[in-house]
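Board notes (copied after class):
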Amino acid sequence: MTPADRAIAAVAVAAPLLLLVYGVLRWVDGRDGSHGPGWAWDLGHTAFLLAIVGFAILGALLRPRAGQRHSTLGIVAVMAVALGAAAFVWVILGDLFPSIDEAAEVPDLVFNLGPVLFQVGLLTLLVLRVVAGRLPFWSPVLVLLGFVPIAVDLDLLPLGALVILGGLLPLNRPPE
């Protein structure tokens, strides 16, 4: 396994696990009927921030190299992941530090388009791996299925994170 493959394997496990931690801490935070400032909120959002950074790193590591088939599409997909991740980071930092949100409120376009760019970009990179024969076809399908419960209800974050982890686990195997 090359150093790049090891990095992909590590991030492919760490990012969904951090998303799982965020989901569980979100449950803990919401036990009183509201979500808001407190240790579970802060720790959960920190885990979420680290998960999003991890997914952005994963996107960059999955990019097809120059000269390979679909390298241009891969670059566009990496840019979509990065822009989507930046939107998530903006929202997360605004949640963690209300003064940031007051100084630079997240526009609706960024709030709504960011997650779509992030998900479509990551799924595109995974599909490119499938096309290259480096990932089973069901991997991006599971990742997509993991995004669905999160979009339906944030209380389903732990379930979504586990399904996403299942979809990314094949990245933990050395390429054949």
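Comment from the instructor: The chain has one domain: 3-172. Residues 3-172 form one domain.
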